[in-house]
């Protein structure tokens, strides 16, 4: 993950950093962060509570002193993750914390696998003994002999060059070679749990039948345009888009065929799937149908593009 930290760690000296014009004591602290990171108020409020529980000071920072506390430094995995969130002054700002977790939520499977590799041994190749130590943490109830056996089996399958260590490409190849649905489930991360995201969707005034000014979306009873499908694809391609495909009536072979056409672009895969659905269903490819499928797949942000 360290190699990607520049994409989410904010510069504390920047005049556009939220901390440069707001403060935890100000009423705009939550809304300013929501606007800056393009997260919802509910997501920012939830993460602010977590950030405070981690020990954030009155200025909304996790300082080096706080990060050195036993609760944040005794676990090597937690320590390595938080290290990726630090700015040049050694602090972790709330804005960086938000951007990092948004990154974790939005990235596709391959990037997440590379991020995990970067975290495990500071981005260096993982020797067999280090990997065995990692597995001890993953399987604390297993005997030393069983952990060693799992390590040996894994290295025999993955360490093709027989160097006794895993580089990034070997590790990522191994992760992507696992059953995709299971891997997606393990690496899937949502800032708000599914139930809370659904509640947020249901309670937004513009989706309420009690709203004073309710204006139906012009797309809801129509066949969505390719431009709309592109926007939807942009929202879902880093997530489990094949779940959406399943719910739109695609079979595993169909999904594999779509992937094989664009192996290096999950966006093109998702967009192709949506176009195939639209062509297949014709006039029955209603925006309302796609909106419901996206919402039921917990892809609320994408569903809002089509919601009434």
Automatic annotation (TrEMBL):
Name the Pfam families for this protein.
Answer: Death
Gene Ontology biological process: signal transduction
List residues of the Death domain: 240-308
Annotated InterPro entries: DEATH-like_dom_sf (IPR011029), Death_dom (IPR000488), EF-hand-dom_pair (IPR011992), FADD (IPR016729)
Top-level lineage group: Eukaryota
Coiled coil (residue ranges)? none
Q: Which protein, by its recorded name, is this?
A: Ankyrin-3
